[in-house]
Every structure is written in C-alpha cells, then in structure tokens.
Design brief:
By secondary structure, the chain is an alpha/beta fold. It has four helices and four strands. The longest helix has 14 residues. The protein is globular, with a radius of gyration of 17 Å.
Length: 141
C-alpha cells in the first residue's frame, strides 16, 4: 500500500489576541535590547485596550523600557494625508508598535514611506486582529 499523494500544502492561520501578539513582540524587543519605543494607533475599536496592555507589560517589568508616548491617528478627516505625514515625523522612537486595521495600515505605511520612516533604522510591529488572509502584507515598498 502506497502513501496518499500530496496535492499541495495546507496553510493554517490561527488568530491570536492582541495580548498574545504584544507578549511575543516584547520578548523580541527584550532579546534585541530595543527598549525605546512608541505606540501608534488609530481609533480602531480596541485601541485603548492595546495602550493599556502595553502599560501593564512595561510597568510590571524589570526591563528599563522607555515609552515615548502614544500617537492616536484619525485618518477619516485627513484625506490628503498631510497631517498623518506630519504626525508620523514627530514620533521620536525608531521602534513603533502600530495598532490598526489592514486598510489603515496601507495608508499609514504609505505615509511613513513618503517621509522616510520605513527604511533602515526603523522597525514597525503591526498588531491587531484581521491582518491576515491575504498574500500581500500592507507594507510600503
């Protein structure tokens, strides 16, 4: 009896909670000694929980985290993205944790690329649910 023939592979994508994603991200930050970071978020439901959980992770840690603040973006009343680009330039940390929807991420990463914030020296961690399910990630070129 021969084993069944494989007809391609199966891709299993499991969703994880924002808390689980942040725990992993903070382990990576600690491993690389990236202790200075800023939060960038939109008004997506759950954004305050995101901010609160980051505070829980950093306040209860022995690591000397340097939290450089929270930038909350309102993309709906900035159709040209002028304010978005200005606000992104004002964030002083090179490590940025971004909480937003997939559609918002595309606009944010495009604006970040426009002002030179996606090249070497900048690290973005995209956090949130509903970010998968596509072959192309919402990253700027």
């Amino acid at each position: 009896v021969s084993p069944p023939q494989e007809k391609g592979s199966t891709f299993l994508q499991l969703g994880s909670s924002t808390e689980q994603q942040l725990q992993v991200i903070f382990e990576v930050l600690e491993e690389y000694d990236w202790t200075t970071f800023a939060l960038v978020t939109t008004l997506l439901p759950g954004h305050q929980d995101f901010v609160d959980y980051v505070e829980v992770l950093t306040d209860g840690s022995f690591i000397g985290w340097e939290h450089r603040g929270v930038l909350t973006l309102n993309l709906t009343d900035d159709p040209e993205g002028t304010r978005l680009r200005r606000q992104l330039r004002e964030v002083t940390a090179q490590i940025r944790l971004l909480f937003c929807s997939r559609e918002e991420a595309e606009s944010i990463f495009q604006a970040a690329a426009d002002v030179g914030l996606t090249g070497p020296g900048y690290v973005w961690f995209l956090v949130g649910s509903g970010l998968g399910g596509s072959e192309q990630l919402p990253l700027a070129a």
